[in-house]
Amino acid sequence: MSGERVGIVLVSHSAAVATAVAELARGLAGGGDPAPLAVAGGTPDGGLGTSSELIAAAARSVDAGAGVAVLVDLGSAVLTVKALLAEGDGLPERTLLVDAPFVEGAVAALVTAGTGADLEAVAAAASEAYAYRKV
Amino acid sequence: MTESYGAAFVVRWMEAAAGAVEREAGRLTELDSAIGDADHGANLRRGFAAVAEELAKEPPGTPGAVLVTAGRLLISTVGGASGPLYGTLLRRAGKELGEAGEVTRDGLARALAAGVAAVGQLGGAAPGDKTMLDALTPAVAALPESFAAARAAADAGAAATVPLRARKGRAGYLGERSVGHQDPGATSSALLFAALEEVAAG
């Protein structure tokens, strides 16, 4: 254990969605600075879409050596992160695409990362959000 | 004698593809506005323009390296799902070609088949799902026969997506309402093989 916290990246087609979900997660995690968190929302020109450059920059910015958990919304966000991971460069070495619902997963990941848990535990906590049935 | 093709041929292919996407961007976006989010033409145009620009500036020395460069640029510039999908197709095909200075048509077909398989894996789609695979799969299968056969198979595959019901991507949410529209991704895939035939014909 390095003592460093896992970094979280939120990737959405929309900058507004990514930023708002980050705010929500920070708020529900008790405010302050639970763990490094960055967003990659929309395209660099402010449109809707996915930018590999914004994703790579966000992942590098939260990489403290304990790994980076990436949560995505849908479609090209999923495919772009998968393609970047397959390429083997551009993203920090220990970057993991987390299979989780975007909003609930972001909250679970940030809270768990704030406890100093490792990358696998952060990913597992986010994925577990799928198991919570609302009806 | 079996003809073989070098890096310059693959560069010309990518330039021809960029030209075709530029000419057809309006039609691709129109198709995408029927069942998608109306960005396919603009996205691909941006991506292939970046590819053509980079290849003109610094053309790599082998067919494989040209395809890897093109694939990487598509992933980083397109901004929609077609970026990682086409990027994976070309990059994987390029990696299959390795360091070889020249490639035969059979070799290109084998490399592209590996690329198509990677696209299927990335997107979780199969032929019949109304995606680019419906043009790519028959095109790659026909490529050992001739460039013209590959083009014809891609065109036929794209046309055959009209009656299909989409199962992937945004169009998948439309269910039955996606029937009756030609898939934009299959259409742009056919452009890629039209460009290949055009360049091979000289």
From TrEMBL, chain A:
<dbReference type="InterPro" id="IPR036662">
    <property type="entry name" value="PTS_EIIA_man-typ_sf"/>
</dbReference>
<keyword id="KW-0418">Kinase</keyword>
<dbReference type="InterPro" id="IPR004701">
    <property type="entry name" value="PTS_EIIA_man-typ"/>
</dbReference>
<dbReference type="GO" id="GO:0016301">
    <property type="term" value="F:kinase activity"/>
</dbReference>
<keyword id="KW-0808">Transferase</keyword>
<protein>
    <submittedName>
        <fullName>PTS-dependent dihydroxyacetone kinase phosphotransferase subunit DhaM</fullName>
    </submittedName>
</protein>
<dbReference type="InterPro" id="IPR039643">
    <property type="entry name" value="DhaM"/>
</dbReference>
<feature type="domain" description="PTS EIIA type-4">
    <location>
        <begin position="5"/>
        <end position="135"/>
    </location>
</feature>
<dbReference type="Pfam" id="PF03610">
    <property type="entry name" value="EIIA-man"/>
</dbReference>
Automatic annotation (TrEMBL), chain B:
<feature type="domain" description="DhaL">
    <location>
        <begin position="8"/>
        <end position="198"/>
    </location>
</feature>
<dbReference type="InterPro" id="IPR050861">
    <property type="entry name" value="Dihydroxyacetone_Kinase"/>
</dbReference>
<keyword id="KW-0418">Kinase</keyword>
<dbReference type="InterPro" id="IPR004007">
    <property type="entry name" value="DhaL_dom"/>
</dbReference>
<keyword id="KW-0808">Transferase</keyword>
<dbReference type="InterPro" id="IPR036117">
    <property type="entry name" value="DhaL_dom_sf"/>
</dbReference>
<dbReference type="GO" id="GO:0047324">
    <property type="term" value="F:phosphoenolpyruvate-glycerone phosphotransferase activity"/>
</dbReference>
<protein>
    <submittedName>
        <fullName>Dihydroxyacetone kinase subunit DhaL</fullName>
        <ecNumber>2.7.1.121</ecNumber>
    </submittedName>
</protein>
<dbReference type="Pfam" id="PF02734">
    <property type="entry name" value="Dak2"/>
</dbReference>
<dbReference type="InterPro" id="IPR012737">
    <property type="entry name" value="DhaK_L_YcgS"/>
</dbReference>
